[in-house]
Design brief:
homodimer, alpha+beta, D-amino Acid Aminotransferase, Chain A, domain 1, D-amino Acid Aminotransferase, Chain A, domain 2, nine-stranded mixed sheet, six-stranded antiparallel sheet, 28% helix, 32% strand
């Protein structure tokens, strides 16, 4: 159901000596493909570039990346009108041991995946969430980056097993809310919108950035700051975002419930007008 | 120069959908092979088991693992008298996304690598080290485990590039000394031996455990506690250990130097008598 490309060729395997396999030494992006085009492409490329700087990998050529992706979309066994592309940048093959030279050219792998639209009722009525017990380590040197070191998200996601819960929020060790396993989170109180600071840990999503920038252009400030667990549970509205589904209201997190989402609706309208068509429902 | 085995067959590639490649979702061990036998085998298996528990992977069958390793040692293109085996346990192939079932059977990959003995002068005169700027994230849910999420060690190791420095020590964000990029560290003050607590981050090495247990059996206590950067720099002796080289005195760390290692020598003697033959020099 998926198809991977490397150097323009379809592949299904990688060298076992690839540092992504050995150490998670690399980065990735999951890009929404809509009507054959990668959405928020510039933001994805910029995040890859920041990640490469952090990991001391050579920055990819954004134009070449785009050409490869367009080719993969044409050749992949997916619906180009609505699918997901995954871009993996690895530090490549090396001898055993943590050492590698730097800057290192990244090896680029492109994967195309089918993706079903999120159920319409989730946009209308919101999704159920929970607080995970898995805590994110604090002061990570790669905070904000989408590296291939994702065991924390895997562990958090495992907590949702055998539930119908859509998303789990991870806290740091000091019980600050950081993000969902596959989304970023926003809290609304007294009509003020805030989203957690991701300086210590977490992944800074492209839809989070697009939401913040879309709102700022309309004169609506989004505070980026620490949000403790209690504040989240007591706020007026909660919503989550990611590159694939756009924005979804949250109707429940553990014991807390939210039945009305006026501010979230206005954010969704703003996003719908700025290219995120799923939010127009 | 290396050879990998999976399911009894020589391989050089893995599925790109393997979760080790996608998320670093797995564990590894690097085992010293001496005279055809894996050294500290029981400790390696126990650490894998603890890691599997944390990652919610099914524990490997230690006997089957050993049979596979023995076969690989016989068939690998290495010197069985002195080489290194790498065991990778991955969460296996899955669809895209962090979700997987748990417990999951781990996929086992065995690699055999040539390894040269560390230069004799390092055992006699000690090795040069430095403090890395890369900090380890604190309160990691997998603290102590040797997971495949190792970007921090890669970044720390990159700091040693273009130097002749043997090892770099990583601190946590609060400037506690945690471990070397590929070793654990011990500090000696007033004849008392201490090694950092690894409750918040770091990897608990098998040679660290063997050192602590060997000394305790001889009535020598090793304190496992927080050690700040200043304490390390001002202590009487420093030594490092790992599964491959055993124990090495440290003669320099940044500006600090140590020219005499009487306690380290006695620890090396104790280890040499307890199976770590490299320490008998």
């Amino acid at each position: 159901m998926s198809r991977w490309f490397h150097g323009g060729n379809a592949i299904s395997e990688v060298s076992i000596d690839d540092r992504a396999f050995q150490y998670g030494d690399g980065l990735f992006e999951t890009v929404a493909i809509r009507q054959g085009q990668p959405r928020l492409w510039g933001y994805h490329v910029e995040r890859l570039e920041r990640g490469c700087e952090k990991l001391r990998l050579l920055k990819p050529d954004g134009d070449a990346l785009r050409i490869g992706l367009d080719k993969a979309i044409r050749e992949g066994d997916v619906n180009p009108a609505h699918c997901a592309a995954k871009i993996v940048l690895s530090a490549g093959v090396s001898d055993r041991g943590y050492s590698r030279s730097a800057p290192t050219s990244a090896a680029v792998f492109l994967g195309l995946f089918p993706s079903l639209p999120v159920a319409s009722e989730h946009y209308h009525h919101g999704v159920d969430t929970m607080l995970c017990d898995t805590r994110l380590a604090m002061y990570s040197p790669t905070a904000g980056c989408k590296t291939l070191n994702r065991i924390e998200q895997v562990l958090a996601r495992l907590e949702l097993q055998s539930t119908n819960i859509f998303e789990g929020f991870t806290l740091d060790a000091e019980r600050r809310v950081i993000c969902g396993t596959m989304s970023n989170v926003f809290a609304v109180s007294d009509n003020c919108i805030a989203t957690p600071s991701l300086d210590r840990c977490g992944v800074a999503g492209v839809m989070r950035r697009h939401t913040i920038e879309t709102l700022r252009k309309r004169g609506v400030a989004v505070a980026i700051r620490d949000i403790c667990e209690a504040e989240l549970m007591q706020c007026d509205e909660v919503f989550v975002c990611n590159s694939q589904f756009g924005i979804l209201p949250v109707r429940r997190c553990g014991e807390a419930t939210w039945h009305s989402h006026p501010v979230t609706r206005s954010v969704m309208s703003a996003l719908a007008e700025n290219g995120i068509l799923e939010c127009a429902q």
